[in-house]
């Protein structure tokens, strides 16, 4: 980004980054979209990544010093400030000499509300780095040689591929100093002996990582200018070159910097090793780090309360309580919305203000049509709900022409509705495919046993294609014998038993027999591609499943008490009970929708702006287009029950459901 000025108006050239829009850029610079269009008329037809825009900046007040805090400069620490009566952002900006936008940036709740007396906010403190200018070194060659006496010089044998830049950096010299110490050496050759300093850097002489290169500091160059040249923060330059912070910037100093020939300078980051999860899943997104659209959001919740069925005069008494307890759909709706309310409150602390309307669908498609016809949905950013198939289809179809996204949170059924329908629950087919991917990736070298009944021939055939050498145990009259299992298990191998059945008898007899066979000190792990309702039967205990380290696919995980402690505590304080799975799903889904709206221009743009999955307390989301239109969440967990009855993610990297996306 380069600054220019004309007629007392200051401008900056902005290079468009991936996912940015004219709207988001206008918010970043606190200018109007029309101001950007005025100086960039072509941008009305859209902007492309890496294109340049002229941004007109607001004029600074005369006599006021420029405040610290700028693009490319990170705070070194934060001060805690408790807001006093009558204090506002302007006063704090003056008091701490920092821009108001920088205070908002680190206290995102201030995007949606004013300062409140007694609240504590963070004030960023910046290091004054712009003044670091390369100091000249005007010493002659003779003066340089005299500077290094015999006790300050050692010998270095030149290795293949070494350069003067690399050798100078290794010994804390400038190239001029290295040449002065070796006046007879013109061209480096492997095996030549050089006189060098004794201050040896731990960095390698040869840069093996092509993402970096050596750079010689020129006269009058500044740290700020170098950060701009290589498109990194000044702190990044210091991190790569600690000597600059220790001794200051010197003319001729050799710095390690990003290599623009090998990296996209707009998106350069220091390389890190990626783990297996990143290789398979793409990127796990934290949208809280990408918030840019702080305009108020509008959400409409369509929930199947059916309050018309509850007598008004019974509210608040035992009859009302009984009516709620007897209506499972109503209980789920109330739990779901309680979690959603907490998400809306938490989003406000991030600077996202939300206008909410709640409609009772009465579990009737005609009522949904009536709601849409008699209410103004023009400014609605997203609809969450309805829960049921008929009401969801009615909402999506009637809002399709206005392109308003409709998120159905609980149903996994195939639905009509067009490209504005988002089904937030994966299908059983998706979960089974995820488990097959897991088994295929990590089943090599295992003794695979497939237990199935006649109804499960389809999934059995798929498993046979993956594991041609697997052994089969077929249920007879709804029962699997211990002897038939014993004949397939190997004493010196990892035995992976995959059970495919919806019969309580088949599952129960298999689990019981395998538990008895554990006494023979066999290594047995149990799997299924479909943990159906039969596993809830009292004859199949979690204790027995845990002893076999039972693995299965799931839409959600069990929230971690440590990771979600704050959420659980706030929910209990607000509602007096521990959140159940529906309350957690209400929170997770609503927070995901709000963060997507605040990180992009709208829901649809968020999917092109950010490639990857999001994850919250119990749920993760990765929406993919469906052949018949609309989007469906394809993110699935592989869970494992342990002998101590704890539930954990078996290995979130062990599913390749994201491989198609990555490719």
Shape: globular
Could you describe the largest sheet, including whether it forms a barrel?
Answer: 7 strands, mixed
- Helical proportion? 25-40%
CATH class of the largest domain: Alpha Beta
Q: Note the total helix count.
A: 24
Domain module tally:
5
Q: How big a fraction of the residues is strand?
A: 15-25%
The parts where pLDDT drops under 50 for at least 5 residues are 1-9, 59-72, 263-281, 652-663
Give the CA-CA distance, first to last residue: 33 Å
How many strands? Answer: 26
* Widest sheet, order of strands: 12-11-13-14-15-24-23
User: Which class of secondary structure composition applies to the elements?
Assistant: alpha/beta
User: CATH fold name of the largest domain, please?
Assistant: Rossmann fold
Using the 3D structure, state the CATH architecture of the largest domain.
3-Layer(aba) Sandwich
Corresponding CATH superfamily of the largest domain: Response regulator
**Mean model confidence by pLDDT:** 81
What value does the Rg take, in angstroms? 32 Å
InterPro entries: Leu-bd, LysM, LysM_dom_sf, Peripla_BP_I
Pfam family, one: Peripla_BP_6
GO molecular function: lytic endotransglycosylase activity
Protein name: LysM domain-containing protein
Summarize the structure.
This protein has about 675 residues and is an alpha/beta fold. The protein folds into five domains: about 1-55, Membrane-bound Lytic Murein Transglycosylase D, Chain A; about 75-125, LysM domain (Membrane-bound Lytic Murein Transglycosylase D, Chain A), CATH 3.10.350.10; about 140-265, Membrane-bound Lytic Murein Transglycosylase D, Chain A; about 290-425 and about 575-630, Response regulator (Rossmann fold), CATH 3.40.50; about 430-555, Aspartate Aminotransferase, domain 2 (3-Layer(aba) Sandwich).
């Amino acid at each position: 980004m380069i600054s220019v000025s004309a007629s007392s108006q200051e401008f900056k050239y902005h290079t468009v980054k991936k996912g940015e829009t004219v709207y988001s850029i206008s918010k970043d610079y606190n200018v109007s979209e029309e101001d950007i269009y005025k100086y960039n008329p072509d941008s009305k037809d859209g902007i492309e990544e890496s294109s340049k825009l002229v941004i007109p900046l607001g004029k600074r007040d005369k006599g006021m010093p420029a405040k610290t805090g700028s693009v490319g400069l990170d705070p070194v620490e934060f001060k805690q400030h408790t807001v006093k009566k009558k204090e506002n952002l302007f006063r704090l900006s003056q008091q701490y000499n920092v821009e108001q936008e920088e205070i908002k940036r680190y206290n995102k709740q201030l995007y949606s509300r004013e300062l409140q007396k007694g609240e504590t906010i963070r004030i960023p403190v910046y290091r004054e780095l712009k003044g670091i200018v390369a100091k000249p070194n005007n010493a002659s060659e003779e003066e340089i040689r005299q500077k290094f006496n015999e006790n300050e010089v050692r010998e270095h044998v030149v290795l293949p591929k070494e350069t003067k830049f690399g050798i100078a950096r290794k010994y804390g010299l400038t190239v001029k100093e290295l040449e002065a110490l070796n006046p007879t050496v013109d061209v480096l050759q492997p095996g030549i002996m050089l006189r060098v300093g004794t201050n040896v850097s731990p960095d390698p002489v040869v840069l093996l990582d092509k993402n970096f290169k050596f750079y010689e500091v020129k006269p009058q160059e500044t740290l700020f200018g170098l950060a701009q040249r290589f498109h990194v923060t000044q702190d990044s330059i210091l991190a790569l070159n600690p000597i600059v912070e220790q001794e200051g910037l010197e003319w001729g100093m050799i710095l390690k910097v990003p290599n623009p020939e090998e990296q996209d300078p707009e998106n350069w980051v220091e390389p890190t090793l990626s783990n297996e999860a990143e290789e398979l899943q793409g990127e796990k997104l934290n949208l809280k780090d990408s918030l840019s659209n702080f305009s108020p959001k509008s959400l409409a919740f369509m929930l199947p309360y059916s309050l018309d069925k509850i007598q008004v005069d019974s509210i608040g008494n035992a009859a009302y309580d009984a009516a709620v307890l007897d209506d499972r759909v109503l209980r789920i709706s109330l739990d779901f919305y309680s979690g959603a309310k907490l998400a809306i409150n938490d989003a406000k602390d991030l600077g996202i203000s939300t206008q909410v309307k709640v409609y009772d669908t009465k579990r009737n498609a005609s009522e949904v049509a009536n709601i849409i016809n008699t209410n103004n949905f023009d400014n609605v950013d997203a609809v969450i709900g309805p829960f049921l198939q008929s009401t969801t289809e009615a909402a999506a179809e009637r809002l399709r022409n206005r392109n308003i996204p409709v998120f159905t949170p609980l149903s996994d059924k195939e639905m009509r509705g067009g490209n504005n329908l988002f089904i937030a629950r994966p299908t059983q087919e998706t979960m089974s495919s995820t488990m097959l991917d897991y088994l295929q990736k990590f089943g090599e070298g295992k003794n695979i046993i497939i237990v199935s009944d006649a109804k499960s021939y389809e999934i059995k055939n798929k498993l046979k294609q993956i594991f041609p050498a697997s052994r089969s145990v077929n249920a007879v009259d709804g029962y699997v014998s211990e002897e038939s299992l014993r004949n397939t298990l190997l004493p010196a191998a990892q035995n992976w038993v995959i059970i495919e059945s919806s019969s309580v008898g088949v599952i129960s007899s298999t689990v019981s027999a395998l538990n008895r066979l554990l006494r023979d000190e066999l290594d047995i792990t149990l799997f299924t591609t479909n943990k159906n309702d039969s596993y809830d039967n009292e004859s199949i205990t979690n204790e027995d499943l845990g002893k076999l380290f039972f693995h299965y696919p799931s839409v959600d995980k069990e929230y971690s008490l440590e990771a979600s402690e704050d959420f659980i505590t706030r929910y209990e304080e607000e509602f007096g009970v521990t959140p159940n799975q529906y309350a957690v799903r209400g929170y997770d889904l609503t927070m995901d929708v709000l963060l997507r709206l605040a990180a992009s221009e709208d829901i649809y743009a968020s999917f092109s702006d950010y490639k990857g999955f999001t994850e919250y307390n119990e749920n993760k989301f990765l929406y993919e287009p469906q052949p018949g239109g609309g989007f469906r969440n394809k993110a699935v967990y592989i869970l494992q029950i342990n002998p101590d009855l704890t539930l954990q993610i078996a290995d979130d990297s062990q599913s390749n459901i994201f491989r198609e996306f990555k490719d």
